[in-house]
Each structure stands twice: as structure tokens, then as C-alpha cells.
Amino acid sequence: AHLDDFLAGKPSQAVRDALGEKLLRLYFRQVLALGALHADPHLGNYLFGKDGSVGLVDFGCVKHFPAWTVSVFRGLWSLDESEVGSDKNLAFWQEWLDLNKTGLSVRDHRDILDRVGRFYQKLYPRRRGQRAEPFDFGRVDFWKDLQEIARRSISEKIHTPESIFLFRAEMGLYNILNRLSARVCTSRVLAEEIRRSEGGSLR
Q1: What is the pLDDT of residue 201?
Q2: Model pLDDT, residue 45
Q3: pLDDT at position 107, please?
Q4: Distance CA 37, CA 70 (A)
Q5: Model pLDDT, residue 5
Q6: Arithmetic mean of pLDDT, 193-200
Q7: CA distance to 41, 50, 62, 142, per residue, from 135 (Å)
């Protein structure tokens, strides 16, 4: 069933959470393991089963990423909490976005990336040695924060042709997770998908 019909059946929280985890894994596995992304997050392209299964259809818009882009994102997504606002973090973004072309100062770059970093740190808390609680995608403030980051990134031209596809797919993913009110252990999923991709497994 499509999302509205699926939700009309009043699935349990456990089923919605399971679907949320599968959708999140699907996104990271495409980028990190396949280097290719289904980049048309229209709700009609997703099918949901009562057993928690997910179907993805219509591959008319697929973006392929070079190995260096996948490597940069693996590095970004592997950063510890203490490194989010560091020179190391800025270097990753500098390499991928080529921030020199934006015309913004280094201070402005840091301000923008600090804002983005704080948002993703809430979404994917990475505190070594601590167990992260499930993130509730049904939170109203989460969706508002995401829309503001997207608006500022576009207005300040902090993007590349590749990032447009990534952010589009990510916005679509988070929209579905928000509609599902899914609760997902985001940090665990991300860490597991990074390890899986480093091992070369596509399972």
C-alpha cells in the first residue's frame, strides 16, 4: 500500500518503527555500499507492507556518485561528537562542496556548518561509549529545523549538483519518517551501515 492507505490501517508503533529503520538503512546503503541513489522521493514510489516490508519503485531518476564522494561522506558520517565543529569537519565539507566558490568567508562557512552540524548531532548523536536513545521523527521541531537548514543552504548556495540529489532524497526520506512518527536508533543504524560498507558487503 502507499503511505496514506498504509497509515489508514493504523499500523502499530512497532511496525512503524521497523519501517523507519529499514528506510534509513536503505538510504545509507545506497550511498555508502552502492554509490547510487534512488533520487525521486515521491510518496508514490514507496510501498509499505503490513509485515514491515518496504517496496521501492520507479528508477527513472538515479544518481551515481564517484568513489571520492562516497569516501568523503563516509568520513563525515564517521565523525565523533567532538569533531563535528572541528577543522576536520570543515575540511570534509571544503573538499566536497568546494566552499571557495560560494564567495563566503571562512567565518561564514563555519557558522553555516556549525548550524548544520548541531542539527545532525541531534539527529545522529555520536557520543562514544554511550547508548543513544531512539530518535522520534514525529517531533514537530525536527521538521521545522530541517526545512530551515534546507532553505538557508539553498539561499547561500551551499550545494553542488551531487548534493542537490542527496538532499532531495534525504528530505523525502525524513518526510516519510515524520509521517510514520517512526522512532529509530539512528546512530546505531548509521554505524552499522558504515561498517557494512567498509567490509564490502551489500547484504
Answers
A1: 46
A2: 93
A3: 72
A4: 11
A5: 95
A6: 82
A7: 21, 22, 28, 10
Instruction: Dig out the grid coordinates for 55 from the structure.
Output: 517496496
Contact 33, 197 (CB under 8 A): yes
Distance CA 194, CA 192 (A): 5
CA distance 84 to 118: 8
* Interatomic CA distance for residues 71 and 91, integer angstroms: 13
Q: Give dist(CA 54, CA 24) in Å, integer.
A: 11
Residues 6+ apart with CB under 8 A from 123: 135, 142, 186
Which residues fall within 8 angstroms of residue 62, CB to CB, at 6 or more apart? 36, 37, 38, 39
Q: How sure is the predictor about 173, in pLDDT bands with cuts at 50, 70 and 90?
A: very high
DSSP state letters, 83-99:
GTTSHHHHHHHHHHH-G
> Which has the higher per-residue pLDDT, 125 or 81?
125
DSSP string, 173-198: HHHHHHHHT-EE-HHHHHHHHHHHHH
46: left (phi over 0), alpha (psi -120 to 50) or beta: beta
**Stretch 110-127: mean pLDDT, rounded?**
75
Q: Is the dihedral of CA 19, 38, 70, 72 positive or negative?
A: negative
Question: Quick check: 81 pLDDT over 90?
Answer: no
- Rounded mean pLDDT, 64-70: 86
For the record, the C-alpha cell of 103 comes out as 564567495
Chain centroid to Cα 9, Å, comes to 27
By C-alpha distance, which of 64, 55, 58, 57 is closest to 22? 55
